[in-house]
UniProtKB/TrEMBL annotation:
<keyword id="KW-0472">Membrane</keyword>
<protein>
    <submittedName>
        <fullName>Undecaprenyl-diphosphatase</fullName>
    </submittedName>
</protein>
<dbReference type="InterPro" id="IPR000326">
    <property type="entry name" value="PAP2/HPO"/>
</dbReference>
<feature type="domain" description="Phosphatidic acid phosphatase type 2/haloperoxidase">
    <location>
        <begin position="50"/>
        <end position="161"/>
    </location>
</feature>
<dbReference type="Pfam" id="PF01569">
    <property type="entry name" value="PAP2"/>
</dbReference>
<feature type="transmembrane region" description="Helical">
    <location>
        <begin position="20"/>
        <end position="43"/>
    </location>
</feature>
<dbReference type="GO" id="GO:0016787">
    <property type="term" value="F:hydrolase activity"/>
</dbReference>
<keyword id="KW-0812">Transmembrane</keyword>
<keyword id="KW-1003">Cell membrane</keyword>
<keyword id="KW-1133">Transmembrane helix</keyword>
<dbReference type="GO" id="GO:0005886">
    <property type="term" value="C:plasma membrane"/>
</dbReference>
<dbReference type="InterPro" id="IPR036938">
    <property type="entry name" value="PAP2/HPO_sf"/>
</dbReference>
<feature type="transmembrane region" description="Helical">
    <location>
        <begin position="122"/>
        <end position="140"/>
    </location>
</feature>
<feature type="transmembrane region" description="Helical">
    <location>
        <begin position="146"/>
        <end position="164"/>
    </location>
</feature>
<keyword id="KW-0378">Hydrolase</keyword>
<feature type="transmembrane region" description="Helical">
    <location>
        <begin position="50"/>
        <end position="70"/>
    </location>
</feature>
């Protein structure tokens, strides 16, 4: 089923515009750079510092869990290698399951989404979805890799909020990191 979905995406959606669009989305997710920048911007202002801490924990935990825990455990070959399929980006290193791009993007976007009720939360979630889908379009992950990556990201975002609260309370950082108001 996984490979059938990938071939359907290639047959039904592939075009020069989508090639550029989804290479761009994947680039945004590379090394979690977009999410690190958003985290830094949130940390810079006292009013959004709590969200920055939650997002930073989410990004670090999801990246570490996927890269050093789940990928080595499952050791799944990427679809472009398994099916000798030509890809549009430099060949990603490492194994396929689960998608680190999807996990990190959804951990970051969902951590913000749960904290704020503004338009930016929808933008970040849309970017996360674009990054996740780009991994399918570019034939570097199976749909199950991306689906599990999204689930990992969502769960990590919830854990990160709990962990941030625990760190703030136990390190007596309440004055430096005010709670979010007006969400």
């Amino acid at each position: 089923m996984d490979i059938g979905i990938l071939y359907s995406i290639q047959n039904d959606l592939q075009c020069p515009f989508c090639d550029v669009l989804f290479k761009g989305f994947t680039f945004l997710g590379d090394k979690g750079l977009l999410w690190i920048i958003v985290t830094a911007l949130l940390l810079a202002k006292k009013e959004t510092r709590y969200a920055g801490i939650v997002m930073g924990i989410s990004v670090a935990l999801s990246a570490g869990l996927v890269q050093f825990g789940l990928k080595p455990l499952f050791n799944r070959t990427r679809p472009y290698l398994a099916y000798n399929y030509p890809i549009l980006i430099p060949a990603p290193m490492g194994t396929s399951f689960p998608s680190g791009h999807a996990a990190t993007s959804f951990a970051a976007a969902w951590s913000y989404f749960c904290l704020y009720k503004n338009k930016l939360r929808w933008g970040l979630l849309t970017i996360a979805l674009g990054i996740a889908f780009s991994r399918l379009y570019l034939f570097v992950h199976y749909p199950s890799d991306v689906a599990v990556g999204i689930i990992v990201g969502l769960l990590v975002a919830y854990m990160a909020r709990w962990l941030a609260d625990w760190i703030i309370q136990h390190c007596h950082l309440e004055s430096a990191i005010p709670p979010i108001s007006g969400t």
